Amino acid sequence: MAYSVPLLVSCLLVIISVSLAQTSFRPRGLVLPVRKDASTQQYVTAIDQRTPLVRVNLVVHLGGQYLWVDCDNNYSSSTYRPARCHSAQCSLAGATGCGDCFNGPRPGCNNNTCGLTPDNPFIRTATGGELAEDAVSVRSTDGSNPGHAVTVPRFLFVCAPTLLVQGLAGSATGLAGLGRARVGMPSLFSAAFSFHRKFAICLSGSTSSDGVILFGDRPYNFIRVPAPLDAGASLAYTPLFVNPVSTAGAYSQGEASTEYFIKIRSIRVNNSPVAVNAMLLDIDAEGNGGTKISTVNQYTLLETSIYRAVVDAFSRATAGIRRAPAVAPFQVCFESGSVGSTRVGPGVPNIDLVLQGENAVWTWTGSNSMVYVNDDVLCLAVVDGGVSPRTAVVIGGHQIEDNLLQFDLAASRLGFSNTLLGRQTTCANFNFTSIA
Question: Do 334 and 416 share a domain, yes or no?
Answer without folding.
Answer: yes
